[in-house]
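User: Hey, my collaborator sent me this sequence without any context and asked if I could get a structure. I don't really work with proteins. Can you help?
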Amino acid sequence: MTENRLERIDPDRASAEQKKIIERLGEGRGRIPTPFNIWLHNPRLAEGMEIIGTHIDQTSVLSEVEMEVAILATAIFWNAPYVINNHRRHALKAGVPEPVVAALLEKRRPEVSAGRLGTICDAVSEILAGAKVDDARFATYDQELGRAAIAELLVVVGYFTSVSLAMSLHALEPKA
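Assistant: No problem. I've predicted the 3D structure and written it out in structure-token form, which is a compact way to encode the shape of the chain:
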């Protein structure tokens, strides 16, 4: 088994810049989420990620179900076991239907009927695939989700791509 590569920042020994971010994380999240133990080694980066992560965590235009579908699909795309395990639980707790979670875990497009959640599944799938979205498809996303949700999906996929890659690179394993 690969040794855990995570090197946590000791808050008592942190630089002034790191302490500022740790304080903001405490205010915004009440804790230091695991990826920040990676990003805090670059305080300017951690500061930007804190702003994005706290927004996603607290003020998203997406529902919790929509957010968890996007997060879980991203973690699965990047084969990030730690994030998959964590967000599988979050998704079910948030109310993502079990068949949707199962389909995502099996790398299948969830069989969600028409509606916002189906559109979210389609959009996230196309974003992750790097697909060129034609005008008609984009118009559907715009009409059913709106520009704010489209922008948010792009950021959620990007942010959780970084989370997934960071956790995998640092050899973090799922909690038992």
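In plain terms: The chain has two domains: 16-58, 64-169. You can pass these tokens on to your collaborator as they are.
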